[in-house]
Amino acid sequence: MKIEILYLDKFKFEFEEKLFTIYLERLKKISKNQFSQINTLKISHKKLSERLLRNRKNEILIILDERGDNLTTHGFKDLILKSGTRDKVFIIGSTDGFDKNILKMSDRVISLSRMTLTHSFAAIILLEQIYRSVTIEVNHPYHRN
Question: Among 35, 47, 73, 107, whose CB has the most other CB atoms within 10 angstroms?
């Protein structure tokens, strides 16, 4: 199974991108048994639309939106690690969010918070939660119950 994180906005501050990279590196080190690959990519609206229209039989498309489902950490862990072998593709929107047509194309819409987050913070929180999920799965002390 592959994890892919697509985002539409750029990081505005170097420290945000650095923290994002730290969690990505941590995740790649610890998750070799859970994921075959972890990719992150800044994508344009046009490329996203093309991507959504192609055959996605082997993907679960998960859009992050403040109006989406709230999950617990363990619920999120189950979503990415216990929901089969299909690749998980997370999409983080731009400042304007997503229109209803894109939301309808997704398999799941989840919320990291009911509050509006910057794209950069959403990306960092998402990676941290994926990392936390893997540490729970492998009984790593990062997550303490």
Answer: 35
Contacts of residue 57, defined as CB under 8 A and 6 or more positions apart, other chains included, come to: none
Domain count for the chain, please give it.
Answer: 1
Nearest residue to 52 (alpha-carbon basis) of 14, 16, 98, 111: 98
Instruction: Report the alpha-carbon distance of residue 63 to residue 68 in Å, rounded.
Output: 8
The set of residues, in sequence order, having a beta carbon less than 8 Å from that of 15 and lying 6+ positions away, is none
Range 119-143 average pLDDT: 92
* Domain ranges, residue 80: 2-137
- Per the CB < 8 A criterion, the answer to whether 92 and 119 are in contact is yes
How many whole angstroms separate alpha carbon 137 and alpha carbon 66?
27
In a domain, 145, yes or no: no
Q: Residues for the chain: how many in total? A: 145
DSSP secondary structure letter of residue 94: -
20-52 pLDDT per residue, tens: 999 999 998 888 778 888 889 888 888 888 888
CB burial readout 91-114, b (16+ within 10 A) else e: bbbeeeebeeebeeebebbbbbee
